Amino acid sequence: MTALTIVRGDITRQQVDALVNAANSSLLGGGGVDGAIHRRGGPAILEECRALRASRYGRGLPTGQAVATTAGELDARWVIHTVGPVWRPGGDPSLLASCYRESLRVADELGARTVAFPAVSTGVYRWPMQDAARIAVDTVRGVRTAVEEVRFVLFDDRAYEAFALQLG
Q1: What is the pTM of this model?
Q2: Burial class (CB in 10 A: 0-12, 13-18, 19+), 18
Q3: 120 and 82 Cβ atoms separated by less than 8 Å
Q4: Catalytic member of 17, 34, 75, 131
Q5: How many CB atoms lie within 10 A of CB 94?
Q6: Residue 103 is part of which domain span?
Q7: Does 34 participate in catalysis according to the annotation?
Q8: Cα separation of 122 and 81, whole Å?
Q9: How many domains does one find in the chain?
Q10: What angle do CA 65, 104, 71 make, to 5 degrees?
Q11: Residue (of 156, 91, 152) closest to 126 by Cα position
C-alpha cells in the first residue's frame, strides 16, 4: 500500500526518486513549480525537454499526460513532467486526475519508489484548491502502483490545509 504524506515546503528541496513538475505543454520551463524545477535542476532538464519536443512531442505534451527526464542537479533521479488543465467553470476533472495517474504510471516504468507531487493546476491554471486536493488524493489512493510513498509538497498554508483535510 502506498503511503501518502504531506509536507509544507519547496518541492525542489525534496530527496525522492522522482519529482513531479507541473509543466506547461511546451516542456521548456515557465513560472511557478515549473520554473523552480528548471532553475534548480540546471540545464540538463531543459536539454532533455528540447529533445522530447524535437522527437515525440513536437506539438507539446498533451494535457493530462506525463513524461520523464533527468533531474539534473536536484536531489532526485528523475523529473516527471505533467501538464495540468486550466480551470474553467464546468471544467473536466478527469484531466486533472489523469496527471496523477499518468505520473504514477511513468514512476512505475522508471522503478521509482518515492514520488513528490505539487498541487497540480492550482497556481496560474487556477484550479480551486479544495477541489484539486480532493481529486489528487482520491486519484492517488485509487491507483495501483509500486510507488511506496507519494509526498504532496505544498508551498503555502492554504494548500497544506486543503490536502490535510483530504488525508484526514
Answers
A1: 0.97
A2: buried
A3: yes
A4: 34
A5: 12
A6: 3-167
A7: yes
A8: 16
A9: 1
A10: 80
A11: 91
Instruction: Write the CATH number for 152.
Output: 3.40.220.10
Q: Which residues contact 90 (CB under 8 A, 6 or more apart)?
A: none
Q: Which of 8, 21, 17 is nearest to 146 (CA)?
A: 17
H/E stretch holding 142 reads: helix 129-142
pLDDT in tens, 136-152: 999 999 999 999 999 99
Three cell numbers, residue 159: 494548500
Contact present, 153 and 14 (Cβ < 8 Å): yes
CA angle 110, 55, 118 (to 5 degrees): 45
List of residues 6+ apart from 105 with CB closer than 8 A: 66, 145
pLDDT(91) > 90: no
